[in-house]
Amino acid sequence: MKTRYRASFVAVVTLVVAGPVLGLAASAFASTNTYTRTPYQTGRANAGTPNSTNVVKNSSGTVVSYGNSAITYTAPSPSLATLGQSLFLENCASCHGTAANGVPANGTSGAFPNLVGLGPATIDFWIESGRMPAADPRAVQANRRVPRLSHSQALAIAAWVNSLSPSYPDIPSPNLASANVSDGAALFALNCAACHTIEGDGDALAAGTFAPSLRNIPAYQVVEAIRTGPGNMPRFTGNLSDFQVADIVKYVTTEIQHPQNPGGFGLGGLGPVAEGFVGLLLGVGLLALVGFWVGERQ
Fold this sequence. Notes:
By secondary structure, the protein is of the alpha+beta class. The protein has 3 domains: 1-34; 42-75 and 170-260, Orthogonal Bundle (Cytochrome Bc1 Complex, Chain D, domain 2); 78-167, Cytochrome c-like domain (Cytochrome Bc1 Complex, Chain D, domain 2, Orthogonal Bundle), CATH 1.10.760. The protein is built from 10 helices and 6 strands; from the N terminus they run H-E-E-E-H-H-H-H-E-H-H-E-E-H-H-H. Strand 1 (54-57) and strand 2 (63-67) form a beta hairpin. Helix 2 packs across helix 5, helix 4 (120-128) runs antiparallel to helix 5 (151-164) and helix 6 packs across helix 9. The chain is elongated, with a radius of gyration of 27 Å.
């Protein structure tokens, strides 16, 4: 009995004495391993704005293109603006208004999104992904569909909207030759998998919204989505460089859209948890059948 009390007393004394010491050590460790979180910003070099390695301007000083070896952003030609206005009035003005400010002819301010000040990449993404013109303007979230307008028509509308209030980002063209798939996988897991799932199949979010599948999306639209943040998606500008975005795009367009399945049977990309259950069911079931068969023979 005395031995047990003595041991308890020693343990209490050890905690009282060692606690502050461990706390000081932890504080010292934390003070030497702190980091500064990069704030959201659009002025970071090579992050989707003209603050890039390469910037090309025309004779009047207007930025025509910018970027670097990972991604080049190109502004739609101003000569397309006249055609773009006609296409906009025909396909978009019934909701967004004739001035693209979100006020239709017989509507109220704020009824639909204001497009003035959005960069060409934003306009191009929504049109070329088939989400706009919307099949149901009152739907909680627009579904990806076969585009109603062509690539050149989408660029023309983007050119006209951008002429109202020039902004960025412009239309991206990723160069994936030197992109790193491994880095892209790590960045995807950190920034994208929480919503799109690690397999890129998408998932439900809340209140009728969802993260779409990434299976059949061209590379430039992946860049547009990352840089513009459509719908519920956050806009990644200050925290991802163009080189990191190119890594993510290469991972999406290779490993997600064209999986290698080194195990031999991909199970339709159900995901690690579901695939584990399938493996467990088949494996245990097969072993059980073998066990019964051996037992019957005995």
